[in-house]
């Protein structure tokens, strides 16, 4: 009986087993200058792996005494969970080329990250490469625990064939204002051209709001983060307008409340999709697509429209023994040359000032990416505050209830989420 | 050799003879055989459970080895946080609904199917394996099949036509948890059928013969012979179904996309995952875990008392 009942505690045990992994040696101050072999983790995106391997090969050829070993982030539910577990176990690599800004406060609290300011000219390097946009990535203690690496500025992709079928001008569909967007969406669905006008994931994972509410909120507010000065900003007219817009899409059946079983945009089930520049390569030949900035209530001019950056950054982890080499490698991997190769091989936008002029040849040859490059200069990042993920989860829960399922009034949900977010942001 | 014999023959005081017996039992060698499992239990179950309880009373988070972090004692603070969190309360309520559907359904279906399988003479092995396949198949694969069945455009809705629920099954607050309960019941049925099949072999055939002689119908024989005859197995099935049900995680995570719609199918273990792993508050997650363990213990004890009493 006792052993059977104990089986019920498996979940507790799994959790505590992680806790039990603690112990062992931490990083020392000598590690900052130490040189030698290092290990890095890459995202499991095939294009990024190809870039990463080429970059590492070039480094290794030039630095035979400081060899780099690269591998994909080990499989897990999310990269952040895997990295968090590796920090706890003390076996995190030196660099992870897929560090989510939302997870940085947690990794920092765990003692898992090395402030880049510790290295000679660290902060200056970050700021000279990214410009004023780097400020968003600074931690509350004023230090950089991540280098802004690349962004996937979020825009709206639309299927020209579906628009045409619905009797809408496929080259210039009216999608700039909320009214236009809703009218176009109604036309698409009522005409039977597609099952859904747009199909963002209506699920409750903390990060899903980055691809529905947040890009539009960034656009509506002209670049305001969800939390500023430790206070939630979205319990406002702008926040309500964005939430009401999405609530209308759901309540009128223009956006389904159930997750798509596949890629709704690729399958022609949805006329539009919220995407980053990665979509150019993914849908390039299979869908006749067009791209437009996210809508605002007033129809903000595209060259003034903000959006969510969907950035992935690079951080140096405290378990690294040769942090001197890690810092040199980080600078090498984010050099103008390597950023150019990243752009060429992945289509993702290096978080670098003057992106378009720096790689003007590339954008001339690849005009599909020009709009994304322009948009990359006006992006908003997730706020770098304590309890970042708990804040996003609290927001998502209230958003799901009010906006997707219409169970609670939108005003009430935003106020509740804002109170919770402010409380969490104020905790250390 | 002679001296050894003398020692054995020499009468020893009673106290001296009993002490080793008290400490090591009548078969001291048994301890050696039991020790590996005892060590396993201590290392894999007892120590982490104790640590979980300790964590739940501290301001605890996972930290890098060597990181200087304070983990002060916070008393019942984590329990207060947990009990005042509507999401946690709702998850316990959800799993309560799940158990109310899942446990009785599991007991009834597995007993009925086991009894039927016990009487089948042809294709018995095939049928037994058929019921067991879902149990040994990965949930991820089975969830895909159920999504195909119960999705918005799934087979069930196509068959029901205008009678299909709106919102659909998996995004309907009232139906999501029953669908999850049905899925888990179906998936685990094979295991519980095997338990009952084993128990049925121990029900004396003479009882059925006596019932037949007394003119009992099949239904009467089932109710008056089979059901009482497999009562110990029923206790086991109820307790195991309760324990596994209380640890519900995979199904709300995959089938209803993270406990949806709007938290209608979250479970305590799913909230533990969110708090402990995603949000970096293992102290709060541990408090949920401790409450869950106590709740499952209590439910299991009550079930046992009720089912074992005449």
Detailed description of the structure:
- Chain A has helices spanning 2-7, 10-20, 46-62, 79-89, 104-109, 122-130, 160-165, 178-191, 213-221, 237-251, 278-283, 323-333, 336-346, 355-358, 360-365, 370-376, 388-404, 410-425; strands at residues 38-42, 68-72, 95-99, 147-151, 155-159, 196-198, 227-228, 231-232, 270-275, 289-292, 307-308, 312-316, 349-350, 379-380.
- Chain A has 428 residues and is of the alpha/beta class.
- Chain A has a 6-stranded mixed beta sheet with strand order 2-1-3-12-4-13, with helices on both faces. Chain A has a 4-stranded mixed beta sheet with strand order 6-9-5-10.
- In chain A, helix 9 packs across helix 10 (237-251), helix 10 packs across helix 17 (388-404) and helix 17 runs antiparallel to helix 18 (410-425).
- Residues 1-27 of chain A have low confidence and may be disordered.
- Chain B has one domain: MetI-like fold.
- Helices cover 72% and strands 0% of the residues of chain B.
- Chain B is built from 15 helices and no strands.
- Chain B has helices at residues 2-9, 14-24, 29-56, 77-83, 86-119, 124-136, 139-150, 155-160, 176-200, 205-213, 218-229, 231-246, 250-254, 268-278, 282-308.
- In chain B, helix 3 (29-56) crosses helix 15 (282-308) and helix 6 (124-136) packs across helix 9.
- The interface between A and B is large, with 61 and 63 residues.
């Amino acid at each position: 009986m006792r052993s059977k009942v104990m089986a019920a505690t498996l979940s507790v045990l799994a959790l505590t087993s992680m806790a039990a992994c603690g112990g062992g040696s931490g990083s020392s101050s000598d590690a900052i200058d130490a040189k030698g072999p290092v290990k890095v983790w890459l995202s499991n995106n095939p294009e990024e792996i190809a870039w990463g391997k080429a970059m590492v090969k070039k480094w290794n050829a030039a630095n035979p005494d400081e060899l780099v070993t690269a591998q994909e982030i080990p499989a897990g539910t999310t990269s952040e969970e895997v990295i968090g577990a590796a920090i706890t176990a003390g076996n995190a690599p030196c660099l992870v080329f897929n560090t989510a800004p939302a997870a940085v406060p947690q990794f920092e609290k765990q003692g898992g990250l090395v402030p880049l300011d510790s290295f000679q000219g660290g902060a200056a390097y970050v700021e000279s490469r990214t410009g004023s946009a780097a400020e968003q990535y600074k931690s509350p203690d004023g230090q950089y625990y991540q280098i802004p690496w690349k962004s996937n500025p979020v825009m709206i992709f639309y299927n020209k064939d579906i628009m045409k079928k619905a009797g809408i001008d496929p080259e210039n569909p009216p999608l700039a204002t909320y009214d236009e967007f809703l009218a176009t969406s109604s036309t698409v669905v009522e005409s039977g051209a597609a099952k859904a006008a747009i199909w963002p994931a209506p699920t409750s994972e903390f990060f899903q709001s980055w691809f529905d509410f947040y890009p539009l909120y960034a656009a509506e507010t002209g670049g305001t983060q969800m939390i500023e000065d430790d206070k939630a900003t979205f319990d406002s007219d702008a926040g309500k307008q964005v939430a009401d817009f999405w609530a209308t899409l759901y309540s009128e059946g223009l956006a389904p409340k159930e997750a798509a079983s596949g890629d709704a945009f690729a399958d022609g089930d949805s006329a539009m999709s919220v995407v980053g520049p990665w979509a150019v390569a993914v849908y390039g030949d299979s869908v006749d697509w067009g791209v437009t900035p996210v809508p605002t209530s007033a129809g903000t001019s595209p060259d003034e429209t903000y959006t969510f950056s969907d950035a992935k950054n690079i951080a140096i982890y405290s378990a690294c023994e040769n942090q001197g080499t890690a810092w040199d490698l980080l600078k090498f991997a984010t050099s103008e040359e390597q950023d150019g190769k990243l752009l060429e091989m992945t289509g993702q936008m290096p978080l670098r000032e003057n992106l378009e002029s720096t790689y003007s040849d590339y954008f001339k040859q690849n005009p599909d990416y020009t709009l994304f490059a322009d948009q990359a200069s006006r992006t908003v990042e997730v706020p770098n505050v304590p309890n970042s993920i708990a804040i996003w989860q609290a927001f998502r829960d209230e958003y799901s209830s009010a906006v997707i399922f219409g169970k609670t009034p939108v005003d009430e949900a935003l106020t509740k989420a804002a109170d919770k977010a402010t409380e969490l942001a104020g905790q250390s | 050799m002679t001296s050894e014999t003398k020692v054995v023959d020499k009468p020893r005081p009673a106290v001296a003879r009993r002490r080793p017996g008290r400490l090591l039992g009548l078969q001291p060698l048994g301890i050696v055989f039991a020790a590996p499992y005892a060590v396993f239990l201590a290392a894999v179950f007892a120590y982490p459970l104790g640590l979980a309880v300790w964590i739940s009373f501290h301001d605890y988070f996972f930290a890098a080895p060597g990181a200087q972090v304070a983990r002060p004692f916070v008393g019942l603070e984590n329990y207060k946080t947990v009990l005042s969190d509507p999401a946690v309360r709702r998850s316990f309520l959800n799993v309560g609904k799940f158990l109310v559907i899942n446990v009785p359904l599991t007991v009834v279906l597995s007993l009925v199917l086991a009894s039927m399988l016990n009487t089948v003479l042809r294709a018995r092995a095939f049928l037994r394996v058929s019921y067991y396949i879902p149990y040994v198949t990965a949930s991820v694969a089975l969830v895909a099949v159920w999504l195909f069945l119960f999705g918005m455009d799934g087979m069930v809705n196509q068959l029901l036509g205008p009678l299909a629920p709106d919102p659909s099954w998996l995004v309907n607050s009232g139906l999501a948890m029953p669908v999850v309960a049905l899925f888990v019941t179906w998936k685990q049925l094979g295991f519980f059928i095997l338990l009952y099949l084993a128990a049925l072999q121990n029900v004396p055939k003479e009882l059925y013969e006596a019932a037949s002689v007394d003119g009992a119908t099949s239904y009467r024989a089932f109710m008056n012979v089979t059901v009482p005859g497999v009562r110990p197995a029923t206790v086991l099935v109820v307790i195991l179904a309760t324990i596994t049900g209380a640890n519900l995680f995979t199904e709300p995570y995959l089938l209803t996309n993270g406990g949806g719609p709007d938290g209608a199918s979250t479970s305590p273990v799913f909230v533990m995952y969110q708090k402990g792993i995603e949000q970096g508050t293992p102290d709060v997650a541990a408090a949920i875990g401790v409450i869950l363990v106590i709740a499952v213990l209590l439910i299991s004890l009550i079930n046992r008392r009720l089912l074992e009493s005449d």
